[in-house]
Write a structure and sequence with these properties.
heterodimer; A: Lipocalin; 30% strand; B: Lipocalin; 3 helices; elongated
Chain lengths: 361, 195
């Protein structure tokens, strides 16, 4: 199932692992590379060169794996907060980085061969010489390696500036797509949408998206563990308001494993094929006082429907609480197949309750 | 002078190849080899970290080829140690230091054959002695001869030789970094021999 792990709100675990491993190694390579060239000859220099080559070739292997992974599981689409020109430039700078991560180790290997130095990878694997020993060629390759390295440093600087621009200036959470701890702490971290525009921070412990449905006389309820996205809301500028929330339905849970397995199965949410539900607002309007409504599209199980989410917003000091309940009909989204298309056991109406608590300093 | 004659250099040796034409009446040939038409390369052979190669740029030698009596053939080579060259100038100058070739004190490195044995159609084994940093040790060279033209004119190529052998640098007192970089040094000589 190609790309089954890819998620619309972030890179897959494999991609993150490769990215961060490469980042760590490249940082080390740059540091060691800049330091070692001016060392006086001696053991530190010898070891520095050996490790620089070994790690450089490791990056080559990782990058080849990464390219293969990208082909198998393409990166997630860019979020809507990315502007048109950024959208045009991003693939080029990412592509250039990947090209450099291949070109640098290969130029180093060529340089080593032309210099008459055979590389023995970590002391175990003797690599073939790519070229005959040749002083003139060696000098040219040194120049190439040098300029490729500086180009890499420049593009990396750009890469980091882009992260700063998005995450510090715009706070659109783009870094979270690649944030490594998500591997370990998926819920804690991914669960933090950004309240843009006003310095608000979501309290991810007290914020929640829950659901409840009647089921032979009693009410089954649960919550979505992982959701993320963008909330832009200013009561004085409703025209600019925008909600864009992505929910990982694989984390929808009632606390009872058999119920959860059933809910995620192909008969209901089919999370193996449709892991994500998505709400995106089209218009937010005031209904008087502290009540509002957000119109938009809700997509569950790949089926999009127009919905209206009524909510209240209360401001108390530096804390804002938004609450709303959206009743939907599960069968409108194809949730409940075969015998579950009947509403005898599980009601058609599911209430989705949203509570977002945010604070500002 | 005769002492000098006996000292031959590394690679050269073999050259002689005598017996490639057993029927030929003897008359030993006197041939030259050297940097003008050949190379001496060496590489540190047993490092677990890397293998690096360098060369000597100034060397010459003489061969005496006796087809009728192969074991009497000889080779002697002299190498100017100050002509050592690595791609990295830092390494080149390090190797000239007292820790290594100590070129100020020992400007010459020599090789002289003791016995030459035929081992195949066009291969020879040369046993001899190498003297480096004032220390003399045995060293064997495996030699391959190609393009042999016994009738070559004076100054023209008589044959092409490739000789390879190994020595331990620690035996010559060059022990710096031995445990890291390695002790065994592989030597390869490729040269034309001319009359």
């Amino acid at each position: 199932m190609p790309g089954a792990e890819g998620r619309a709100d972030g890179y897959a675990g494999v991609a993150k692992l490769l990215h961060w491993l490469t980042a760590l190694l490249v940082l080390g390579l740059i540091g060691v590379g800049l330091w070692m060239v001016d060392l006086p000859i001696g053991l530190p220099k010898l070891y520095a060169f050996a490790w620089h080559k070994w790690i450089g070739l490791t990056v080559l292997v990782l990058t080849v794996l990464r390219l293969a992974w990208r082909a198998y599981s393409p990166p997630p689409p860019l979020p809507p907060t990315v502007t048109a020109w950024e959208r045009a430039v991003a693939p080029w700078s990412h592509g250039l980085l990947l090209v450099l991560l291949v070109a640098l180790p290969i130029s180093g290997w060529l340089m080593s061969s032309a210099g008459g130095v055979k590389v023995i990878w970590f002391g175990y694997l003797e690599l073939p010489d790519l070229l005959e020993r040749d002083t003139g060629l060696f000098e040219r390759l040194v120049t190439w390696h040098h300029w490729l390295a500086w180009t890499l440093m420049a593009v990396l600087a750009l890469h980091l500036l882009a992260v700063l621009r998005h995450d510090v200036l715009r706070r659109d959470g783009i870094f979270r797509r690649m944030w490594p701890l998500a591997l370990l702490l998926a819920i804690v971290v991914a669960n933090r949408p950004v309240l843009a525009q006003s310095g608000w921070t979501i309290d991810h412990v007290r914020s929640r998206i829950a659901f409840s449905v009647e089921q032979v006389g009693k009410v089954a309820s649960g919550r979505i563990g992982t959701w993320t996205g963008t909330i832009v809301f200013d009561p004085n500028d409703l025209a600019a308001a925008r909600f864009d929330i992505r929910m990982d339905m694989r984390t929808a849970s009632t606390g009872a494993k058999d119920v959860d397995d059933m809910m995620r199965s192909a008969s209901f949410l089919d999370t193996a094929n449709q892991p994500e539900a998505h709400f995106v607002s089209t218009a937010v309007a005031s209904r008087g006082g502290d009540t509002y409504e957000a119109r938009g599209k809700l997509t569950i199980r790949g089926v999009a429907r127009d919905v209206v989410l009524p909510f209240t917003l209360r401001l108390q000091g530096n804390q804002a609480t938004a609450r709303g309940t959206l009743p939907i009909k599960r069968l409108d989204y194809g949730v409940g197949r075969n015998e579950w298309a009947s509403t005898n056991y599980v009601a058609d109406v599911v209430n989705i309750e949203v509570a977002v608590v945010a604070s500002r300093p | 002078m005769s002492e000098l004659r006996r000292r031959v250099l590394l690679g050269a040796a073999a050259c002689l190849l005598p017996s490639l034409r057993p029927g030929r009446a003897s008359a030993a040939e006197q041939l030259h080899i050297g940097a003008a038409r050949g190379t001496i390369d060496f590489s540190i052979g047993d490092s677990r970290i890397f293998r690096t190669t360098g060369s000597f740029k100034d060397w010459q030698g003489t061969l005496r080829v006796d087809d009728s009596d192969v074991p009497r053939s000889t080779v002697a080579v002299k190498v100017n140690t100050n002509s050592i060259e690595m791609l990295d100038p830092q390494q080149t100058s390090m190797l000239k230091d007292p820790d290594f070739f100590d070129v100020a004190k020992f400007p010459e490195l020599t090789y002289a054959s003791r016995t030459v044995t035929r081992t195949g159609e066009s291969t020879l084994k040369v046993e001899g002695e190498v003297t480096l940093r004032g220390i003399t040790r045995p060293m064997a060279l495996d030699v391959t001869v190609t393009d042999r033209k016994p009738g070559a004119a004076a100054g023209a190529r008589y044959a092409r030789f490739r000789a390879s052998g190994t020595l331990k640098r620690s035996e010559f007192g060059m022990v710096k970094y031995v445990d890291v970089v390695g002790d065994m040094v592989d030597i390869t000589i490729r040269t034309d021999a001319w009359r």
